[in-house]
Amino acid sequence: MLLLIQYTLIFASVLLLVALGGCVSEHSGVINLGLEGIMVIGALGGALVMKFLPATGFVMFLCVLLAAVAFGVIYSSLLAVACINLKADQTIVGTALNMLGTALATVVVKSMNTALNPDDHSSEIEYIKAKKAFLTNIGKFELNWFMIVAVVLLIVVFVLLYKTKFGLRLRACGEHPQAAASVGINVFTMRWAGVLLSGLLGGIGGITYITAGVSTWKFENGVAGFGFLALAVMIFGAWDPFRIAGAALIFGLFRALGNVYNGFDFLKNLPIPSAVYNMLPYIVCLIVLAFTSKNSRAPKAEGIPYDKGMR
Amino acid sequence: MKEKQSILRNDGFQTFAASIVCILLGLIVGYLALLIINAEGAWDAIVNVMKNFFKYPSAAARMKYFGSTLAKTAPLILCSLSVLFAYKVGLFNIGAAGQYCLGVALALYLALAKGMAWPVCLLAGILAGALSGALCGVLRAYCNVNVVISGIMLNWISLYGTNMLLKPCMDPAGKDTFRLVNKAKQAILPTLGLDKLFSNNQYVTLAIPLAVIMAIIVWIVLDKTKLGFELKATGNNLNAAKYCGMKENRNIILTMFIAGALAAMGGALYFLSDVEQWNVNASAVPGMGFNGIAAAFLGGLNPIGCIFSSYFITHITVGGGNVDLSHYCAQIADFISAVIIYLCGFVLFFKTFLNQRLNKAEERKIERARALANDANKEGGKA
Amino acid sequence: MEKPYAIEMLNITKRFPGIIANDNITLQLRKGEIHALLGENGAGKSTLMSVLFGLYQPEEGVIKKDGEVVKINDPNDANRLGIGMVHQHFKLVECFSVLDNIILGVEPNTAGFLQTKEAREKVVALSEKYGLHVDPDAIIEDITVGMQQRTEILKMLYRDNEILIFDEPTAVLTPQEIEELMQIMKGLAKEGKSILFISHKLNEIMEVADRCTVLRKGKYIGTVDIANTTKEELSRMMVGRDVEFVVHKDPAKPTDVVLDVKNMTVASKAHNNNAVKDVSFQVRRGEIVCIAGIDGNGQTELVYGISGLEPLKSGSLIFNGQDITHMPIRKRSVMGMSHIPEDRHKHGLVLDYSLENNMVLQRYFEPEFTNKAGFLRKDNIRKYAERLIEEYDVRSGQGPITPARAMSGGNQQKAIVAREIDKNPLLLIAVQPTRGLDVGAIENIHRQIVAHRDAGNGVLLVSLELDEVMALSDRILVMYEGEIVAELDPKKTTVEEMGLYMAGAKRQ
Description:
The structure holds 3 protein chains of 3 kinds. Chain A has helices at 2-28, 35-52, 57-85, 90-116, 128-131, 145-163, 165-175, 177-182, 187-210, 226-236, 241-260, 265-269, 274-292; strands at 124-126, 135-138, 141-144, 216-218. Chain A is mainly alpha-helical. Chain A has a single domain (2-292), classed as ABC transporter involved in vitamin B12 uptake, BtuC (Orthogonal Bundle). The termini of chain A are far apart. Helix content of chain B is 72%, strand content 0%.
């Protein structure tokens, strides 16, 4: 049971972080479908630090965090420049970034592994020791520091969006960019900020995901649709940080079931193949979306490139 | 007004040029990546990627591997048609990958577990994908669910579902399903004698001409028929379609049904050609569906263009296997395709930019003409 | 003594590819005056304002503030010079509060955190001083259009703007609200604010303005003192010829009922209440019935219900003797119902389709355009489109193959009118058919609507323009909050009386 809670919390943290990323980006008016790719690249950044940095404890944690943030932010700028400045189709660019993220990470990790050992053609990075830097055992409960990061960032994002000048301007750009521009707000700048912030959050989400329960990561596999699950969480959470947190917990629970159902005798004894547990979060997601999308209250101008000429 | 327009103004030409630019830039970025990984062999590697089967000295071997590349092109053509068809109707079928899985699942299951003949396997596969696509369409039409997100969810559900269904058909010797040659000859697609043309490459089957025919059918349906007129109108402006009495929800569902059928057909044809076997522990959605997105956009969203872009992408993907694996990895080709899709996002920008330049040039010409005329008038006035 | 100029735009010329949008235009606004800027759509008013706000840089000419040349590169520069504008389409974020909208862009803050207390006090004080009665905490989407407009005014006052520009401010208001706005504008001018009032409504200009500058087709026609001019002179300056204010039409000869609406109720899309409440009326052949009312009182949903875009919650519809309550849109259309939609971009056109394809949007499935195998007969489509283009004078760059997107708004509207009237429908539903068109095109469309009536068909006209309502209709139904509150005879009523019904102050 404790294990279930632990896994639920860690997966919920991942979903929360990434969904907040999507939320900030959409509030600025850009649909970030590239979150999946951003997660992979963020995870790559963190994993590389864990592999090569000979530090421990808090220093290690901080470096991993910063690397994930830096990678995520830099990678998300590819989305920003395409969607904001060049007015490219946000769906195509997001999809391209997802494919590129996995391909790039695979190429990087494989060529790195091959360079270190000519016989090693795998795309895996192992970080079992380094991972200990941010795990704390409280009794039997294994606290991953990224859970705390997620909670802190939840509050930060809420305050940022609803209590600051920046947030007011950001949301105005997502709702009515022409109105924002008419009072002298630079819509491009605000949207860049929104996308880069989503890169930051997505990057942290990525590193959190690959340290949730496993100690090696095969980059060929990407992040298994988690970026999109997070978008579903965001829709379910109606673009509101605290409701997103609630939605993340529910989805996290279903994802965690797939990992730990073996620990529950009554679940184990049910004649359900493991594949069904693997499918569970995705099925739940579809059902939830079917019931919640009808009256979605998305930012009005999301997905529409801002053009100065349009009034 | 019958002035001859510059070829640069031609939309088809612009699309073609944009695709070429995307390919070149993609290759350059790929080359740069290879340079960073290992500068010494980078040029050889990128040449190998581009050469693919041309690296074989004998003509017979070249034909044989050309045939293999074509066999892998056929499913990609269908996946790209699937993406294209949906995109023309304003829907982004990222679920092509999952529909492709379902096509494989039903085709192989009926072939291996039930011993059915290939037409049955093929049709069942197509139907499974079509229904999955239609589900996306229903969710979009009646529940307003974004097709991208539902598509991704269905991709994973389909992947695990396929694994589950095909587990009994697994060859105990490995993790893959049995080869059809060994267990289900009746389900292998006929070669129609095409194999003879490609140095007896048994993978060259009906799939290839069928894919090309489908491309032509898609082109005709979209461009020449009432159905295409309605579907495109629905895609361009859902409200207008509703306003003029088209059944917009039915159109969305029908579109996704057809798109799903196309992608699933790709999967079924490919696996019924026995080129590959399904890994029942697969933990990643097959890249074919995603490459279909690349091929569709690279082909300028034109069904005939898709044939060529699909071939190109398959060509470099197969070629990617030829790189020197002691330094590089085959995924460099995936990387290049991904860069190409990213660049395809800019095609519109490219066109607008080009047209703006052309407009400016024309304006300058007119200005100059006017200035000359003015001067002439003044001169005339003086005289 | 003449007051000094607050802002001057001297000899402004702005060219775009193919056209000169502003050709040597001069506009001088005195301190404390209300100055009208008059011109038809496409006369160059918007371009001139965009130049003033730095959105475009003029090729020639200068702008002076208090007599000194200034350079305006973007809206921020204009803002710093104290220039503010109430846009025709409000620039308000709908899910924000009034206060948030007012402070947006000039947010009072400490270290980035919003501090709204003083701002709220200032807004309340300004609101009282100018009699605006705006609640700073109300959410924009919940308040009336009039309130939203006052929020826009407060936005300018909060920024201490001295030069206030009102772009077509009365288009969305009731006659009573217009009256209030006029008072507010006069009050602002008295306090020393300089007001530029952009309009094409002569009555309002005559009532409120001190002087008026007229533009036509990008050219400066002249500036006149309102005290020394007449409505007729202004209209001549605006259009370049004498304009008939009345549409010539014979008295209606109504015959059979073509549309019978019984107790119709339609739900609204956004909120969960009813937009149309238990409405009943009839339209006969040979008459033009007009639905008048302020925007957003259920007219849109009423038309959606009749045309089939929105299902009825209750009630029934009889069209030409048949019950069409549950009939799909296509069938209604085939039975002889045409609909010129309110929003030509949302409903009327597929913008990425060519003009010819848009012309057959309602008929592409007929045997003339689709053969039995389901293939389009493109040659027939071309011929048909060419005929309509010719007959209805639809102008476009490349004829039938022009993408609809590349056409001017007026010609897009003409194309839709041509398509809908050429179907020769028993009932023509026309929703704001002349929105955004110039006088010539308006006259033309009015004539076609009357001709359609005279041919013995019914017309249901929905319009927000009271002049249009008075000129065209044979019967007027006034809608207020989803109900029909009055049936009036245009010959016996006045605009003022209609206004009372439209504002809900009176009902029959």
